[in-house]
Write a structure and sequence with these properties.
By secondary structure, the protein is an alpha/beta fold. Helix content is 25%, strand content 28%. It has two domains: 5-156 and 298-348, Medium-chain alcohol dehydrogenases, catalytic domain (Quinone Oxidoreductase, Chain A, domain 1), CATH 3.90.180.10; 172-294, Rossmann fold. Strands 3, 5, 6, 9, 10, 17 and 18 form a seven-stranded mixed β-sheet that branches. β14, α7 (252-257) and β15 form a beta-alpha-beta unit.
């Protein structure tokens, strides 16, 4: 590996698409325990938009500009979702990993255990993969040489499918349970449909008109248009009740929909597309032993399970479109428009 500089999409400040600039920057050097990955594909996520905008707020100041874990430092190379090949290793890493195809776990964890919590993210608290190369902890670069998935398909997995698998695991979803997925045409939503169906759950998906067939083909038994009386339609599609709601929308839907849960039902939330403030009659929770669970990304154990899914190809991710890095601003704009089904991927870096 002889390159000394690379092109990167660099976030200079919070703001609009013009806050991201294509720049020539030094290729990072892998430190002790790290590997340098030549990026082959890197997917976009809503976190890229919200991090750019500083839309996460702070405790006590929900309108403050901040990254998902608090104030950010700039410049920052965005891009959490990386697949590529190992180009070089740092001290303490066996050189025989050079040349291996890898899928990178983008989370920075609070401990070394299998159930550690994510407290940082590539592209937010550390430079990410919208660049020619990225340096990551060697233990987070999982070999996937034998995966039948393309580079673009692999790149869709870490954040969206990792978040989805974390929700499914924290919600205790098991074969035969009835599961409702909100926001089902988005990156995390479609991943929830695919992964829950692969697990053997009976999936009722909520999406917008024009995307219903695509969501149904991903594995949903029934698809409900989010317009109209949504929760009455859900109840009609699941007359026996719902075991788990996997929710990336939140907002008023939580209070309106909690009544569809069976006794002991679980509502898992990992997004706030519909609003971050909710009001719930807690009697509808404790009188029926229902729970609301917050879920942020995945644990190392969840990601290891996701890598196994990638290696076997049991789930085939949906790639809506690919772009060269030079079109990163257009990719941001099209992600914000939400007209697509599946994931947007940068695959020419």
């Amino acid at each position: 590996m002889s390159e000394e500089t690379m092109t990167a999409a660099v976030l200079r400040r919070h703001g609009g698409p013009d806050a991201v600039e294509l720049s020539r920057v030094p290729v990072p050097r892998p430190g002790p325990g790290e590997v340098l990955v030549r990026v082959r594909a890197a997917a976009l996520n809503n976190t890229d938009l919200w991090t750019r905008e500083g839309a996460y707020g702070l405790p006590g100041d929900p309108d403050a500009r901040a990254g998902w874990r608090g104030p950010m430092t700039f410049p920052r190379i965005q891009g959490a979702d990386v697949t590529g090949t190992v180009a070089a290793v740092g001290e303490g890493v066996a050189p025989d990993v050079v040349g291996r195809r890898v899928l990178v776990d983008p989370a920075l964890y609070d401990a070394d255990s299998d159930d550690a919590h994510p407290v940082g993210l590539l592209g937010s608290e550390r430079d990410g993969g919208f660049a020619g190369f990225v340096a990551v902890d060697a233990v987070r670069a999982h070999p996937v040489d034998d995966s039948p998935l393309t580079d673009a398909e692999l790149a869709t997995l870490p954040t969206a499918y990792g978040t989805a698998l974390g929700m499914i695991e924290r919600g205790g979803v098991t074969r035969g349970e009835t599961v409702v997925v909100t926001g089902a045409s988005g990156g995390v939503g479609l991943a929830l449909v695919q992964l829950a169906a692969e697990r053997g759950a009976d999936v009722v998906a909520v999406s917008s008109a024009g995307k219903l067939d695509a969501v149904r083909s991903a594995g949903a038994r029934a698809v409900v248009d989010r317009g109209g009386d949504l929760w009455a339609a859900v109840a009609g599609a699941a007359p026996g009740g719902v075991d788990v709601v996997l929710d990336v929308v939140a907002g008023t839907g939580v209070a309106d929909g909690v009544g569809v849960l069976r006794e002991g039902g679980r509502w898992v939330v990992a997004g706030a597309l519909g609003g971050h403030r909710i009001e719930v009659d807690v009697r509808r929770l404790y009188l029926h032993n229902r729970t609301i669970v917050g879920s942020s990304m995945h644990t190392p154990a969840h990601f290891a399970a996701l890598v196994e899914i990638a290696r076997t190809g049991r789930v085939r991710p949906v790639v809506a479109a690919t772009y060269p890095l030079a079109d990163i601003a257009r990719a941001h704009a099209e992600l914000a428009e939400r007209r697509h089904v599946g994931k947007l991927v940068i695959d020419e870096l």
